[in-house]
Amino acid sequence: MMEPLLTLLVLLLVFTIAPSKARNITLGSLLTTEGVNTSWISPSGDFAFGFQLISTNTYLLAVWFDKTVNKSMAWYAKTNTQVPEVVLVPSGSRLQLSSNGLSLLDPGGHELWNPQVPGAAYANMLDTGNFVLLGADGSTKWGTFDSPADTILPTQGPFSEVQLYSRLTQADYSNGRFLLQVKDGNLEFDLVAVPSGNKYRSYLTPNTGGNGSQLLFNETGGVYFTLKDGTEITITSTIMGSMVNYYQRATLDPDGVFRQYVYPKKEAVTRGWKYIGWTAVDFIPRNICDVFTTSDGSGACGFNSYCSFNWNQNETVECQCPPHYSFIDEARKYKGCKANFQQQSCDLDEATMIDEFDLIPMKGIDWPSADYESFTSVGMDDCQKLCLTDCFCAVTVFNEGNCWKKKLPMSNGRMDSSVDRTLYLKVPKNNNSLSIINTGSIKWKKDKKYWILGSCLLLGSFLLVLILLISFILFGHYFAKKSKKIDPPKQSYSTGGLPLKSFTYEELHEATGGFCEEIGSGGSGVVYKGTLQDQLGTHIAVKKINKVLPDIEKEFAVEVQTIGWTFHKNLVRLLGFCNEGAKRLLVYEFMPNGPLNEFIFCTIRPSWYQRGLLYLHEECSTQIIHCDIKPQNILLDNNLTAKISDFGLAKLLQMDQTQTTTGIRGTRGYVAPEWFKNIAVTAKVDVYSFGVILLEIVCCRRNVEQDIIDEDRAILTDWANDCYRSGRIDLLVEGDEEASFDIKRVQRFLAVALWCIQEDPAMRPTMHKVTQMLDGAVEIAVPPDPASYISSLQ
Question: Annotated catalytic, 253?
């Protein structure tokens, strides 16, 4: 039933976004780098094809988003060679359309580029972003969609063979250090040498399916890899779902991360900003700093540098140099770092080496593949001496009697809180002005007069900032008092990371038909289905909050705005709110397939594929502590993609709305055991709840079944553990032919779930680790028996 509905949805979207009739570009038409005819525009004006200036007197022949502020590139011409290179176009060049296709000529008349398309009768710049050459019969002879540069667009594909080279930098369109390619039906991300383009190795190989498989960016906003049997593996996706309100693109960025972006077609005018820009809504790999493990190439960053992944800064990659090192080229950090001192001479005797060089500690940083010599059963002092007296040694590592020496150049460097050992970097003593480096922070020691001067400057700067801050607060207070008399303007409806809309109660009463169709209820309130009176007739879910803490009129609006800015493809999107008198309502995107419990606990079991892939492989959780993860709070959209609801409401509700009679946050059966103990609550409480849900998905039954005849089976977590220990996993999926046939996957999911529900929170994996375990990307050790933990406490 789902397949026809999904097909209908796609067709509706296609008809909705159907472009105006394309304007034919006739033979003999000409574009030049200067003057009036520099580009051809699509009927809607969304895309343009022509010459784009990238530096002084240098252009690209390109397709770009013509209505975005920065005219973002969607395609640019490259040579038709084994390793395609960007075509740089000098000022004064021209492009001519003839029966032989397109011919790009420099000012002297020499041909720079020609896709060789005989039989072309005319051309069109389409509203999809595809510039095409067509024959007299209307058949497409060639299009820019056939040969992407670093970006693909919705409707582009399917590709059984394709290459996307990243740019070298954002401003340098030369081939960069990363390559995404579909080859022989397999998808892989490769690290390549610059400028030769020689492939070092693959840094990511998603589990794809061989000959016959294809890459596709579909109309609903998802980049998929389709296998021969029709199975779709999600590469990236977005909750936006429509090309009507958003521009979309997926780009292999210069840092090697494949990101999917959206851009609202109607630019936001709020909070003093007119333009929100491109927003990354999904990306792969999840942390590129961690995917490089061999000595081939330099890794995510250049040699002798280290990589950190900024989750809070739009998931960006930052490359840094260690102390006493600096970038070879600040504008091209991929070239790596060089030492700012003379390297230790091998002609020095050992005593001089020790007198002139020292080792400074660095925490949270590692170059895992730079080792060239190791020792066992040595002490710290001996380990350090071994490095100080070795002219090749640049870094040493000591850990519990083991000693490793690393030499230059160092590769695959990364900085992360999970690195729990200390490295010692060798630097000259007369330049050793550093104290301990903790996850990349540097504390400089200066001599006294510079310290005094710096302190004075710092104090002066602090006072200046303080004065400005106080002035700003006073002015803001004055302005706020005046603005209280003016009703705030209503914000436009948005689902793309923009501020929320403030609805009136009357609007929501009308949208829900007087709150007549109830679709859910819980401790926080009742949820009703509604339809907005907008052009699309957007379906919504309206939650009436029953009991809100008193005297929080201001806090309510601030809190829901904060929730609205929390953006993740697996969170049910908060669209707006109503804060009118004593009425508090929240407006969410509508999830047509309802909560997960209705899906997996129904009479007819969902297929094993739907349970195993569409939910588990869509990153069901985030690092934010939800505290009430359960099937009722996991909703399914049209594509059965899981999204978490009721996120962020705990601060708005009275305490008794989120507690059971024992004072425990969450719902019985899914509550982590630390709630019952004097133990700090962390994100691992959600990992525990996820483990319980994973068992429920595999077994298609609730965690607690009170009416079951066999008492040993009443509590699913206990029974699953007993089955696992006794080697009778088949009992868990008895009567489920699909699951029984795939018993190895059941065993893997069961092992992951048992790791998640460990009594000790420290024993539970992170959600990132859980996704790797579910995908089979890492080996899964036998989970400890919870009974052994309990006995150890007695």
Answer: no
